[in-house]
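Lab meeting, item 3. Inverse folding demo.
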C-alpha cells in the first residue's frame, strides 16, 4: 500500500487534501459562529432595524399601501405580511455587507491575513468565509421570522413551502455574502467602508420589491425606478423567498440569484488573486499565493 502511494504522490496528496480542506471549512465556520455567539449585541442590532419596520412602519402604512390580490397571494393581505420577506432580505443584505467590513479587517490585520497564505486553494478559503457568512445570515433571518410570528405576523413557514423558502433564504444569503466578498476587494481602508456601503445597501434595498410591489411602481409612473428594481438582483432574492412561501412559481428569480452568486464569487476570487486581481491586494499585504 505504501509503495503504491509512493509511486502515486498525486493520489496521496488528494487524500490528505480533502480532509485538510474540510478541516479548514469547519475551523473558519466555527470561528465565525463562536465569535457571533460571544457578541450578543450583534444579533440585537441586526434585528432592531427590520422589527422597527415591521412593528411601526407597517402599522402606519397599512392603510396607505393596499396590497391587491396578485401572485403569489390568493387573497388580500395586510402590509406587514407583504414586507416580511423583504425584511428577511434586509437581514441578509446587512449581514452580507457587514461581512465585507469584517473581511477588510481580517485581511489587513486579522486571521484572513494568515489564512490567505495557507497551502489551500484561495477560492476554497474564500468559499469557507462565504459559507460562514451565509450561516450567520440564515440564523439571524430565522430569529427575525420567529419574532415576527410571535408578534402576530401570519407567515406560512411551518409547511413544505417553508422548506423551499429556507432554500431561497440560503441562496440569497450566499449571493449577498459573495457580493460582500467582492466589495471587500475594493475597500482599501476601514474608513472607506461607510461611504461605500451607502452606495450599495440603500440603493439595493429601496430600488427593489422589498417594500412595494413592482406593479405599483409602474402604475405610479416611476418608470426608471421600476426598471432599476427589475434588474436589481436583490429584488429577485426577495421575490424568490416571497413566492416560495406560498408555493408559487418564482419564475426567473432562482436563476438570477444563482447566476449572480456565481459571478460575484468568481470576481471575488479573481480579485483576491495577487497575480491577476484588481485592488493590488498583494501590495497591501493581502496574502501570498
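The presenter then showed the designed sequence:
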Amino acid at each position: 500500500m505504501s509503495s503504491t502511494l509512493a509511486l502515486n504522490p498525486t493520489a496521496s496528496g488528494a487524500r490528505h487534501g480533502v480532509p485538510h480542506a474540510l478541516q479548514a471549512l469547519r475551523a473558519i465556520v466555527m470561528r465565525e459562529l463562536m465569535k457571533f455567539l460571544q457578541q450578543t449585541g450583534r444579533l440585537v442590532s441586526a434585528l432592531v432595524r427590520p422589527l422597527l419596520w415591521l412593528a411601526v412602519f407597517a402599522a402606519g402604512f397599512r392603510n396607505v399601501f393596499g396590497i391587491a390580490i396578485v401572485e403569489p397571494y390568493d387573497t388580500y393581505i395586510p402590509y406587514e405580511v407583504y414586507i416580511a420577506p423583504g425584511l428577511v432580505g434586509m437581514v441578509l443584505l446587512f449581514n452580507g455587507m457587514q461581512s465585507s467590513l469584517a473581511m477588510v479587517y481580517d485581511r489587513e490585520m486579522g486571521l484572513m491575513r494568515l489564512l490567505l497564505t495557507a497551502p489551500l486553494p484561495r477560492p476554497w478559503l474564500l468559499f469557507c468565509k462565504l459559507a460562514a457568512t451565509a450561516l450567520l445570515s440564515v440564523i439571524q433571518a430565522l430569529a427575525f421570522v420567529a419574532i415576527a410570528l410571535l408578534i402576530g405576523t401570519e407567515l406560512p413557514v411551518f409547511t413544505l413551502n417553508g422548506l423551499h423558502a429556507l432554500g431561497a433564504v440560503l441562496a440569497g444569503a450566499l449571493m449577498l455574502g459573495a457580493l460582500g466578498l467582492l466589495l471587500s476587494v475594493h475597500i482599501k481602508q476601514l474608513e472607506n467602508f461607510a461611504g461605500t456601503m451607502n452606495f450599495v445597501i440603500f440603493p439595493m434595498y429601496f430600488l427593489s420589491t422589498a417594500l412595494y410591489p413592482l406593479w405599483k411602481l409602474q402604475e405610479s409612473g416611476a418608470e426608471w425606478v421600476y426598471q432599476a428594481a427589475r434588474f436589481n438582483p436583490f429584488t429577485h432574492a426577495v421575490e424568490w423567498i416571497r413566492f416560495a412561501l406560498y408555493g408559487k412559481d418564482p419564475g426567473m428569480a432562482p436563476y438570477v440569484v444563482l447566476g449572480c452568486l456565481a459571478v460575484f464569487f468568481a470576481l471575488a476570487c479573481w480579485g483576491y488573486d495577487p497575480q491577476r486581481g484588481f485592488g493590488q491586494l498583494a501590495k497591501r499585504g493581502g496574502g501570498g499565493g
